Structure formats: C-alpha cells, structure tokens
Amino acid sequence: MTLTVDEAGLALADPKAYADDRRLHEACALLRRESPVHRVEGPGYNPFWAVTKHADVLEIEREHTLFLNAPRPLLATAEMDELNRTRAEQGIALRTLVHMDDPDHRVVRAIGADWFRPRAMRALEPRVRELARRYVDRMVGFGGECDFARQVAAHFPLYVILSLLGLPESDFDRMLKLTQELFGGDDDELQRGASNEEKLEVLMDFFAYFKDLTEARRAHPTDDLASAIANAEVDGKPLNDFDTASYYVIVATAGHDTTSATIAGGLQALIEHPDQLDRLRADPALMPLAVDEMIRWVTPVKEFMRTATRDYELRGTTIREGESVLLSYPSANRDEDVFDDPFRFDVGRDPNKHLAFGFGVHYCLGAALARIEVAAFFEELLPRLRSIEPAGTPENIATTFVGGLKSLPVRYSLA
C-alpha cells in the first residue's frame, strides 16, 4: 500500500512504526522527498513539525539557543505533556541532560564529563574487554543457539555502565528490568502498564533506588561515578534529590539501551550482509568504520524534540515561536543527499557523517564509551565465530524514543 505524505508524518508518532523498519524508512523517505518539514497533527498528540533531512536536523542542533529542549524534549502524548508540565512546576519531574538547556545544561553536564574523557575511557577499556569476553563465553555456554538480543546484547553494556557507576552486580537485574520498562513503555511486552500512572511508577522506582544510593555515597564516598554525582555541587550547593536521581537515570539508561540496540542490530546487519561479515573478519582494521556504520544503521535514538523561541524559517516553512519540531535521526541517517547508497550496509563507509549521537552542545556524553563497547564485543566475537544464521524471527521494540531489537534468535558455532 502506498503511503500519503500525511500518513508518513503520522508514522513518526506511532510506536509500532519503529518496530517495522520497512514501514518507518518508507515513511521517512517519502517525507524527505516531498515534505521535509512536515506538520503532524496526530490523534492524542500536540502538533509538531517533523524534520527529516540531515542538513535541517543539523541546522536546528546548531541553533541551540533558539531551539530549546524545554518544555518538550521528547515526543509524548498530549496527556503526558501536560502531566510532565505539572510535575515540573511541582519540582518532582525527571530533569536529565536531555531536558536541560544552557546555562543549567553546561554546568550539570560538567559533573560527569571527566568520566567520559579519553583518559578515563582508556582506563575503563580493560574492564570493557573483560566483559566482552565473558559474554562471548556465555554464548558458547548456550550451546550454539540463543536469543542474542535478550541474552547477550541486553546485558553486556549494562554491566559496563553500572560498573562505571559502581553499583553491585546483585542490582544489575533490577536495573535491566527498569530500563526496559522505561524505554519499552509503548511496547505491549516490555511495558509495566499502558497507563500514564504506571509509566510514572517506573520513574519513581528509579528515584527511590537512586535516593538510597545518593545517601550512601554522601555518607561514605567511593571512587566511582555514583559518588561524583552524589557529591556534586552547583553554585556551592548539592544537587536536589530529583536532579541527582535524574543524572543517574540518564547515565544508567542511555548508556545501556542505546549500546545494546547497536550491538544486536549490528550483528543482525552482519548476518543479513554476509559479504560485509567476511570483509570485516578479513580486515579487522575496518572495525572503527564498521562500528560507526552499525550505529548509523540502527540509530537507537529515534528523536528529540526542540521548541522555537522565535519565528524561524526552515526550507521555506515558518516555524512559529512556541511550536515544536521533531528531529528524526533515522531519517537523517538515511538521507540520500549525504550518504552514498544509504540503504547499503557498508563496514568500510567513509566518510560517515551520521547524527546518531546528536550534534553540538547536546552531543552524546557517552559516545566514546559506546564505540569502545561495540568494538570490543565484535573484536572478541568475530575471530571465534565459525558460522551464524537466523534461528527465528527478529522483533523490534515499539517506541518513539530509544529502541532496536528486543529479540534476535540466532544459531551459531563458536571456537
């Protein structure tokens, strides 16, 4: 069935569209061709402008003082927008780096910045490689068949990021469940419940856990990122409980689900493109390029929203002050004007100007760590891989924010 432009726009507000790669990319390609700045008025949502061209996403990212994260940093239903606004006024809302603009964003981002600089990443890399080896060994233990997304990819990055935070391994399963409920709030299988109240319960469970962690780290500081966050000060005062918990939430969740989605989707891409798998195995020096191609291919973060502080013209369309735009990263990363043959998976793609980590002041804090994790895992897996094939039907998460494969059954032989 051929989509209309309006139907294509509505797909960007439909969690089920992101679980269907073909439908999503058909919609995005149509919007790029015929209506790259497209007004969407979906049932249950406040209106927004869908921005689908790479150049336009980049332009808005650069104009960070004109297009603000607040008050609508992510796509949500009109009901949830209002609930978030009310909770923000009450001072009990999630307020991560994703929600902030300067000057707060700059100051709060600096709290964790040193933990993600090159020197810190080099110190962490041996632990990352140890965990990569552990999870490839685990694949051997599964006897040649597993659900790679659920049993491997979902766990390895979580162990890395929670090790960085300094959390005990006994809490890792709890964190996995909470992160899946948070980003799977629109997925029938992963959600705690369909109501807004049940979705907010997930956040409150995060807050309760991290409130206890903050108290422990303030009483007894340790040499980990959790202590750095718990004891951080802004203008001579510690962060309040909600801002502290929000910082933990963004590190624990964004540092996990985005990377696990890339690892699972990267393996799927290699299976579906055996020539590229053979090429990468024959030339391991391609790994840095291959990692960025996996990130582009999967694009785990599907969108961020920005709100205009004054009228702004984009491609001949006037976005009025107070109106919101949705930055479609999957669309930007398949833009024919930027990527040669964008629907070809190419482990040697160079240049690769993908926007999966964003751009400018909001560039992903953990981008270097994500690249290290993905590279470490495949550098451990590929030399030991003798064969691999599908063992069932892959399934994607229904989402409008962060997602990828939730199931990837595979059959394989490992040395």
From TrEMBL:
Pfam families per record: p450 (PF00067)
Keyword Ligase (UniProt): no
Protein name according to UniProt: Cytochrome P450
Entry's family note: Belongs to the cytochrome P450 family.
Superkingdom assignment: Bacteria
Coiled-coil residue spans: none
InterPro entries listed in its UniProt record: Cyt_P450 (IPR001128), Cyt_P450_B (IPR002397), Cyt_P450_CS (IPR017972), Cyt_P450_sf (IPR036396)
Lineage: Bacteria, Bacillati, Actinomycetota, Actinomycetes, Streptosporangiales
Swiss-Prot/TrEMBL keywords: Heme, Iron, Metal-binding, Monooxygenase, Oxidoreductase
Organism the protein comes from: Actinomadura fibrosa
